[in-house]
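User: Hello! I'm new to structural biology and keep hearing that structure can be predicted from sequence alone. Could you demonstrate with UrcA family protein? Please show me the input and the output so I can see what each looks like.

Assistant: Of course. The first part below is the input, the amino acid sequence of UrcA family protein. The second part is the output, the predicted structure written as tokens.
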Amino acid sequence: MLKTFPAMAALVAASALVLPTVSHAQTSDSVVVPYSGINLSSLAGQQQLKRRVSNAADIVCAAGMSPDLAVVRADRVCTSDAITRAAPAVEAAIDNYRRGSVEVLGAAAGITVSAH
């Protein structure tokens, strides 16, 4: 019994740290898409970044998560709008990579994709 107590205490402490993070992630309406590891000089790298942005838009807009057709339509509009709002940042990242300019904070932060 004495040996299981520290293990249970550690489990409770770990749960207290993880649960707020998970619940916050589920209600978040924005996601940061990192791109520092992508070669944006290649078409494949540019497409990979755009896929990441699209996937992030699906996540923040909860696309396809409801059987209600009206909700699915609203999610699609949200996803499309989120991708459109992120497009200038995607193009800026690609242009900066082509010119060889480095944005230390921009590359570290990534591109923010938001539902609103």
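User: So the tokens describe the shape?

Assistant: Right, they're a compact way of writing down the 3D structure. Reading them back into a model, for example: The chain has one domain: 29-114.
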